[in-house]
Amino acid sequence: MNLWLVFLTGLTTGGFTCLALQGGLLATAIAAQKSDTARGWKWTLLPTFIFLLAKVAAYTLIGFLLGLFGSVFQLSITAQMLMQFLVGIFMVATALRMLDVHPVFRRFVLTPPKAVFKFMRNNARSGSYFSPLILGLATVFLPCGTTQAMEIQAIGTANPFWGAATMLAFTLGTTPLFFVLGSLATKFSQTFAQYVYPVAATLVLILGIAALDNGLTLAGSPFTLKDFWVTATGAEANSVLGTATGNNEQQSATITVFATGYEPNRLQIKSGIPVSLNLVTKNTQGCTRAIVFPTLGIQKVLPETGATQVNLPALAMGKVPFSCSMGMFTGTIEVI
């Protein structure tokens, strides 16, 4: 998973969509600190720091728990595919709503129950510095749509630490806009949003299309943007091609699994002969450890370090795709 891209998502669309739900709470909590404004700008900013620190800590913990959930309860290939489609559809719709393409996309806004929202607003009016702390922690109950998409991604990592890293990177990305809101003025944030919204919407649209393409990969579709890109750029000719060895009864091959992909990512085997794949990891982190063969209905979660054997049946001539559990890193077995 590209944590830098996750951070950029938080920095742009995540900041704005979360601000719509949570920004008013922070502004109200800061406004309640009237008695400390005369003590200098440091005391004025203190509620903002408390709020953001609590928020980052809370979402990092949530990411850890979601990643743990994904590791304990392994999702089926179909469920992972549907999650990618869900994320993609929501992000594309969010981008189109931000660009105000059509009123129908305004429906793609998830709001919390009124009772929860009312409770948090009432607590925000407290003049105590404990109030921003509670509000920062409680924002996990007010996740914006983009946050919910990231939480689905955290589950898909099937690793508590990568789940925590995903939510940490995203939440850190949202902090600058909240800091602007808390330290300068809401009006400034709104003016700033007017110019940044188109850029943010474009980034979200790209991420949404990428998620939909990942869903197609997990569905085993031969028609994906990744395949089109490989064909258009001639990248396949420069990729590493591996060949299985063996006899007429059994063949074997080794694939090394890195955090950034598989090597070789193209493997030739003979048709009609079972093959034993030796998947080797060495301090490997990320979604590549969860490898799936969608057209065969096979998936395997690999250890961080070690060798895992995956036995494939005798296959007919053609191509068998494989990828990580998120459909981001791919490879192909060419059956000849």
Automatic annotation (TrEMBL):
Pfam families noted in UniProt: Cupredoxin_1, DsbD_2
Stretches that traverse the bilayer: 48-69, 81-99, 129-149, 161-186, 192-212
Domain of life of the organism encoding this protein: Bacteria
Chain ranges of the Urease accessory protein UreH-like transmembrane domain: 6-209
Keywords associated with the record: Membrane, Transmembrane, Transmembrane helix
UniProt-listed InterPro entries: Cupredoxin, EfeO_Cupredoxin, UreH-like_TM_dom
Protein's UniProt keywords contain Transmembrane: yes
Name assigned to this protein: Putative membrane protein
Naturally occurring in which organism (per UniProt): Candidatus Gottesmanbacteria bacterium GW2011_GWB1_43_11
